[in-house]
Amino acid sequence: MPELPEVEVVRRGLARWVAGRTVAAVEVLHPRAVRRHTGGGADFAARLAGRTIGAPQRRGKYLWLPLDDRDLSVLAHLGMSGQLLVQPAGAPDEKHLRIRVRFADSAGTELRFVDQRTFGGLSLHPTVPGSAEGLPDVIAHIARDPLDPGFDEMLYHAALRAKRTTLKRALLDQSLISGIGNIYADEALWRAKLHYERPTTTLAGPRSRELLGHVRDVMNAALAVGGTSFDSLYVNVNGESGYFDRSLDAYGREDEPCRRCGTPMRRRPWMNRSSYFCPRCQRPPRVSS
DNA sequence: CTTCGATCCTGGTAGC
DNA sequence: TGCTACCAGGATCGAA
């Protein structure tokens, strides 16, 4: 499941292998992969052809490629299973190949969007006026992520505490703080010894800063390891958690001993997914919702 | 306005 | 063995 660290690794791969190249032709093989593009697949392909790709950018789990005149950007979201691969033009199509981008140069590689579950996709959007990075207008509401130098920490802490919700819901709220998904939310909460259902209103400033620190730490740790699975013809993305899955302390560890206290970890159904936590280190709030 | 839950999708696997 | 049911989950949209 690509969250911020995985998407950042992909961004770096695109920066190296795709930036500066001019698009020759685009092939949309599955309409769902361009469903966020209002004009449909043919329009997406026509508008992208002939354009030159600028420096890839990222905010949270969103990735985008500004185009030459900065009027439009290609927005990409990997969803749950999306991959952006740089492959030799002659390589056999992947089973779930959804979009192919051919280039007008002699490098011999093409960009492929492969996505089994089709939660992800590509689309073209006007950029926010004055945005140097070519921020697509449709993601202007997405908060900056905790690794962004422009992340406003004071604003975040105040907004978090003003929410009438629970900690994990808030961590997953991309308009409050972006880039966190189910895996890193559970990891950060475990590190902070906080229960996922604790009301945000009860989190005092110091604890909130501590939690944010753990979010950053776990993401940086994952990023450091994720970078190693990169090679030249494969813009990373193993869709999985990369090498970091061996370092997870909470996610997926039901019945395994807590790495701090040895108590068996628990899994609880939560919002049509799961929450993993240590019942001893992460005590539930007194008044549970 | 804010919060909450259902829904989209497909492949792997557990269970019968 | 072959089938069904369930699980993974980010973002969106409509309901409360």
Under CATH at level 1, the class of the largest domain stands as Alpha Beta
Rough shape?
A: elongated
Question: Over the alpha carbons, how many angstroms does the gyration radius reach?
Answer: 20 Å
Q: Would you identify the regions where 5 or more consecutive residues have pLDDT less than 50?
A: 227-235, 237-241
Considering the chains and any ligands shown, give keywords for the structure.
289 residues; alpha+beta; N-terminal domain of MutM-like DNA repair proteins; Helicase, Ruva Protein, domain 3; 4-stranded antiparallel sheet; 6 helices; 10 strands; DNA-binding
Question: What is the topology?
Answer:
Blueprint: H1 4-17, E1 23-28, H2 40-48, E2 57-59, E3 62-66, E4 72-77, E5 82-88, E6 97-103, E7 109-115, E8 121-126, H3 153-162, H4 167-171, H5 182-192, H6 205-226, E9 266-270, E10 273-277
This protein binds a DNA duplex (16 and 16 nucleotides) through loops.
Describe this entry's structure for a reader:
The protein is an alpha+beta fold. The protein has 2 domains: 4-139, MutM-like, N-terminal (N-terminal domain of MutM-like DNA repair proteins); 153-277, Helicase, Ruva Protein, domain 3, CATH 1.10.8. 25% of the residues lie in helices and 20% in strands. It is built from 6 helices and 10 strands. It is elongated and about 60 Å long. It starts with a helix and ends in a 12-residue tail after the last strand. It binds a DNA duplex (16 and 16 nucleotides) through residues 1, 3, 32, 61, 77-81, 96, 115-120, 163-165, 169, 172, 174, 181-182, 271-274.
